[in-house]
Fold:
Amino acid sequence: MTETVRYEVTGTDGEIEFRRYPALVLATVEYPGDDSGFSALFSYITGSNRAQGKIPMTAPVITAEKIPMTAPVISDTRTMSFVMPAGKDRNELPEPLDTRVQILTTPQREMAVIRFKGYAGKDEVEMYTSRLLDGLKKSAIPTAGRPVLMRYNAPWTPGFLRRNEVAVEVNRQETFVTGSNVRSAAAEELPDHGRNF
Structure:
């Protein structure tokens, strides 16, 4: 059975669930939107690494659009990440043989998430991402980075059994209430760090 990343539920707001994730180690690759990203990462965990060792797969698989900070147009490049097993330090993992695969560490953070079933097609992902971002905006909760898609199941899993989620990092501690106005203490100072997860 595939290990799943552990998290702590820190609250809800309608269909949005807030979660605290621990620091994670990711194997990440940039790819043009075809199957090459998954293939490169799967090869890495099944032995295409300096140690020729296998690494257990951990759910979810995380994908994100790569959005240039200086351009208003979304590029054709995406990132895909496999989460490495809990308790593994970046330095403990074997070096990838494929130079496209990078081993990255993400800090502990809080994420806002909406879960949905079925196939995660482009239209579904866009719809749930819009619902997530609109809900956070309505509640004046600032975001950081870009939204990601998290998929938990094998490709052969029937649609009605699939678990998918859209998520984005949030800074709820930045939000406070002043009289009848809900404001963000630093919403305009938050950069898009371009983090994958």
